[in-house]
């Protein structure tokens, strides 16, 4: 196959790429990285695929492109396979749509991700990495930060169906892995306060592209 995705099936960032591949209907080879054996820290992996020793990384054997960082990989896939599957990013030639899309991407990375990734770290990854026990005070502060962010989401989504307008884009899809991960840790309890945001979230989770990988272990 043309694309090789190196990653970990349960990884939130790997799932971020996989949902884009599914939206675009792109066949690919999944190359599992064995963290227990330290494959992500091997000299070959660091030198050729991901210099920071993280997942995922993508190889395009057709173009020779190697790229890491899940959001960048998602954009590469959306751009290369424009015209195939669902269009999840507008063309740069549509100045207004592209600007609103870039704005929506920034919203996810600036207001949503810091809170949810922080919650995930405190509740799960901190202990897994041997960095101590959960700081519940920190979790509560992050949930409050997420609550404040969702107020902004509600203002946007009360006027349009998705963050960049009336069509789903990468900016929406990128919320899925961490959002689903932290639902039990406060996110789900916040959503009923924000009905438009809750509807948006439930519709995202119901997409076939996500359902195919949501429970990957």
Overview of the molecule:
The structure is a single chain. The chain has about 220 residues and is α+β, with helices and mostly antiparallel strands. The protein folds into two domains: about 5-80, Glutaredoxin; about 95-210, Glutathione S-transferase Yfyf (Class Pi), Chain A, domain 2 (Up-down Bundle). About 55% of the residues lie in helices and about 5% in strands. The chain contains ten helices and four strands; from the N terminus they run βαβαββαααααααα. It has helices at about 10-25, 45-50, 70-80, 95-130, 135-155, 170-175, 175-180, 185-190, 195-205, 210, and strands at about 5, 30, 55-60, 65-70. It has a four-stranded mixed β-sheet with strand order 2-1-3-4, with helices on one face. β3 and β4 form a beta hairpin. α4 (about 95-130) packs antiparallel against α5 (about 135-155). The longest helix is centred in the middle third of the chain and has 34 residues, at about 95-130. The radius of gyration is 18 Å and the shape is globular. The two termini are about 25 Å apart. The mean pLDDT is about 95.
List keywords for this structure.
217 residues; alpha+beta; Glutaredoxin; Glutathione S-transferase Yfyf (Class Pi), Chain A, domain 2; 2 domains; four-stranded mixed β-sheet; 4 strands; GST_C; glutathione binding
């Amino acid at each position: 196959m043309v694309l090789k995705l190196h990653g970990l099936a349960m990884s939130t960032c790997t799932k971020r790429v996989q949902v884009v591949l599914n939206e675009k209907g792109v066949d690919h080879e999944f190359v599992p990285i064995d963290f227990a054996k330290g494959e992500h820290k091997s000299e070959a992996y660091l030198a050729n695929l991901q210099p920071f020793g993280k997942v995922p990384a993508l190889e395009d054997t057709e173009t020779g492109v190697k790229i890491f960082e899940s959001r960048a990989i998602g954009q590469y896939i959306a751009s290369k396979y424009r015209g195939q599957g669902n269009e999840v990013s507008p063309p740069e030639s549509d100045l207004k749509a592209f600007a609103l899309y870039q704005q929506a991407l920034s919203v996810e990375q600036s207001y949503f991700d810091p809170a949810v990734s922080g919650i995930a770290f405190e509740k799960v990854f901190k202990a897994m990495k041997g960095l101590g026990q959960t700081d519940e005070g920190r979790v509560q502060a992050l949930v409050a930060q997420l609550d404040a962010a969702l107020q902004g989401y509600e203002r946007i989504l009360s006027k349009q169906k998705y963050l960049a307008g009336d069509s789903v884009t990468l900016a929406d899809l990128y919320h899925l892995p961490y959002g689903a991960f932290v639902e039990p840790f406060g996110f789900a309890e916040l959503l009923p306060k924000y009905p438009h945001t809750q509807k948006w979230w439930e519709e995202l989770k119901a997409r076939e592209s996500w359902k195919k990988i949501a429970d990957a272990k």
